[in-house]
Design brief:
The protein has one domain: 3-Layer(aba) Sandwich (Rossmann fold), CATH 3.40.50. The chain has twelve helices and 15 strands. α1 crosses α7, α4 packs parallel to α5 and α6 runs parallel beside α8. Bound molecules: nicotinamide-adenine-dinucleotide (NAD).
Length: about 350
Amino acid sequence: MGRTYLVTGGAGFIGSNFVLTLLSQRPDAKVINLDKLTYAGNLRNLERVMEDPRHVFIKGDICDRELLDGIFRDHDPDFVVNFAAESHVDRSISDPSVFVRTNVLGTGCLLDTSKAAWQQGDSWREGKKYLQVSTDEVYGSLGAEGFFTEETPLDPHSPYSASKAAADLLVKAYHDTYGMPVNITRCSNNYGPYQFPEKLIPLIINNCRNLRELPVYGDGMQIRDWLYVEDHCRAILMVLDRGVPGQVYNIGGHNERTNIFIVKAIISHLRELGFEEVSEGLIRHVADRKGHDRRYGIDPAKIGRELGWQPETMFEQGIIKTIDWYLSNDAWLDEVVSGDYQSYYQRQYGGRG
Ligand SMILES: NC(=O)c1ccc[n+]([C@@H]2O[C@H](COP(=O)([O-])OP(=O)(O)OC[C@H]3O[C@@H](n4cnc5c(N)ncnc54)[C@H](O)[C@@H]3O)[C@@H](O)[C@H]2O)c1
């Protein structure tokens, strides 16, 4: 029997990739996609499924309890997959309050609504699960050695990662206190199609194609563990299907790279494609981000061992696929950079919702 997935934040980068993957892999799935369409939400990402009867898009806020109650009444979801978040560390440093509201209170609101709909006395309705999409940033920063495991203590540094850690603890509390069936996934940095060009990889690609300066924080030696977004989406599906309730699963592909390596790799591939004016001369080192974590590295052994997940796209292929995607979707990129994508909803729906 087909299952119903309430996906929140499904017009954002990872959420839209997840919705597209889910609907293509599971013909009998139904997706209720709830997204507030902040600056990071873009319905263009979902063009392929906007007319698909298995996909219902609802513009709304995860903090809106009345709206959530209505969605649960109308659609009785089997799964809640919470991608909705404010996700950009720099923005969290300039204005933490919206991060607390969406990432913490919004998660609380989703948990309360799920609990009200799914709990029956001391037990829970069969087949229901809440999955919180979290990040390796909740673990803080690593030195040169070692990896984050699921047992690494939470030690977030930015307002973004602190709000995600707070949300994780709420999710854990609903499991420990009420026995709610939940999972938390903590993934490393994602890259791939549909990422908002404020994040490193699409920002550098876009600046290169416009021959703009390439800003690099500090010495550029910060290390991130990069995972192709489709690998993340597959991992989430596996955790939904077979993750043990109450468990946390780290997701990462052992693809640790410095930021400066990423920038140079993009320059090098673009030059191979004939962008002769793109060069390392465009790189400009700027003042480092406040409290910038130095290194993230995920140990994904548990999800490999227990659920059989392995990354499929190695960085060398993934980065080329990603650069090629942005170059062949330059209209998408231009629309996002100019802000025009925000009028798409208005044009499509005439301001409903
Ligand atoms: N991007 C990464 O590398 C990465 C890595 C690990 C975990 N994550 C987590 O994955 C999730 C998705 O990340 P992303 O990069 O796709 O983010 P994103 O910023 O691209 O998308 C977030 C989406 O959430 C929506 N949203 C924001 N506030 C909302 C609200 N109050 N109600 C409903 N919708 C709201 C936005 O409109 C947007 O569509 C986040 O929870 C993030 O913490 C991201």
